[in-house]
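Input chain follows. Return structure tokens only.
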Amino acid sequence: MRTMHIAMKLKDWMQVAATVVVVSALAACGGGGGDSGGSSSTSGSTSGSSSSSSLPASPTQQPIAATAANTVAITVDHGVTGVINIPTISVTVCAPSSPTTCQTINNIQVDTGSFGLRIVNSALNSTMQSALTASTLTNGNQLAECATFADGYTWGTVRAATVTIGGETTTSAVPVQVIGDKAASTTPSVGCGSGSAENTASDLGANGIIGIGTALYDCGATCVDATTAAQYSNYFSCPGGTSCTRTAVPLASQVANPVAKFPVDNNGVIVQMPPISNSGAASATGTLVFGIGTKLNNVLGSAQAFTTNAVGDLTSSVFNGSTVTAFLDSGSNGYFFSDSSLTLCGSNFSGFYCPSSAQTRSITLVGLNSVKATASIDIMSASTLFGNGTNYAFNDLAGQVGGLAAFDLGLPFFYGRHVYHGFDLRPNGGTQAPFVAYAS
């Protein structure tokens, strides 16, 4: 979905279009379609149509129960604003100065395509808004961030919080972004503002984003070096909270992947989503597992590991005979790629594919370690899928990315699979290179 890295990738760029699609169905959904915590089942699945029945069998891997300390339940359902295919978890944040001053926030989007925790200011209660104080630079200026995504940007201060997810807690406070806590008038005119502001839960479709991709920090060395930071930094120095200008920031002050700050189970994550009907489901419950090969419940097993660049991209993958950059991204609510042989939908579902019959496509994923595998994906007409306004989980929704040589394996790819993201531990002195893997 969303990435803070300057080599921007397409992440969740169709989210706004999907919001429009499901808004009309909200009254019919009510509060139904909920899941029991840790269950691997789905509810509300519809029977396969004649077009979906022509598709090959979908992956069938089931998630483990979210009962161990290194697990937390993932939910896809109506969520905050009825955006489809938004996987969410609950996250607890505590004030570093007062460890008992805490708040659990639901509906935080799980995003393997970005790095770091971001919480919408309005999702924090007044006590937490005061307890999580804004970070400052050595010159005393307030530190803020403009996190730029493919579909917009978030603007807000950087604050420190201790983070607990499932039964795991960071060893110390980590920098997080609080979205929308600064007036729109303070948004920098240079270096921020690409696309639409996404500073509310309504804009995001969630109460925040937890970026758990392969990188440890959301900008890394680019923002540490003053020369590159002057042109590319996400971070801004705001004297008196205004007149914000780009600034260099050390790693310790950058918004960080909180899982990498756990005392154990801190070398990667596994996103496990259940199989669902090709016609979609009202909801789906999976499991987010912390650590890879650190416990009996997170072994890599027979899954092949594809080493990636620092931000999780497989830059030598092949689709339709052309080299593309592929990425496995839970934060994108569909598959997104370019294929002129697929019919595009009309204006009601602009940007999505609406083939007259169900389709299958294949992409060859190629790691930097030369490991190769062919992944097949299924595609149904977005118009057909959205015809049932009570469904929020889809495994065969796809759209275009224009002329870019990119292939976004979004959340549909995760259903029925265990998808691994191994962190790049080298910036902290480790030896593990970033990698992705999957088992289905």
